[in-house]
Amino acid sequence: MRYRLTFVVGLALGYVLGTKAGRERYEQLKKSALQVSQNPAVRNTAESAAQQGRQFAGKAYHVVSDKVGDRVPDSVAQRVRSLRERNADGSGADDWGTSST
User: Fold this and answer.
1) 87 CB contacts (<8 Å, ≥6 apart)?
2) How do residues 44-89 score in pLDDT, each as one tens digit?
3) Three-state secondary structure along 31-97?
4) C-alpha distances in angstroms, 53 versus 31, 56, 63, 98?
5) Distance in angstroms (rounded) separating the CA atoms of residues 56 and 17
6) Residue 31 has what pLDDT?
7) In this predicted structure, what is the pLDDT of residue 60?
8) How many CB atoms lie within 10 A of CB 77?
9) How far apart are CA 19 and CA 39, in angstroms?
């Protein structure tokens, strides 16, 4: 019960402070965030971080694959191979309708 009360009080406090700040402050924050996100230095840094993340993920995949090896049941290995083959055509969608992007 105490957590619900804390949540409701926090919600009410956020509402009151939000309405006091008003639409102008919201627009100002939105404009600042847009400027930061369009800054070339920020974009380059974000792309660099994404590239490094992809590289580390690829290395981790190979390390895990080598260590797991034949311990994976054949049914799981076959399913992974079929997903890789299906995604090799560039569709990227899985059984649940989501994409890997």
Assistant:
1) 94, 100
2) 998 999 999 989 988 888 888 777 766 777 787 788 788 778 766 6
3) HHHHHHHCCHHHHHHHHHHHHHHHHHHHHHHHHHHHHHHHHCCHHHHHHHHHHHHHHCCCCCECCCC
4) 29, 5, 15, 21
5) 42
6) 92
7) 86
8) 13
9) 30
Residues 6+ apart with CB under 8 A from 83: 94
Render pLDDT for 26-40 as a digit per residue (tens, 0 to 9). 788 789 989 998 999
Nearest to 81 by CA among 99, 67, 60, 65: 65
Rounded-to-integer distance, Cα 70 and Cα 77, Å: 9
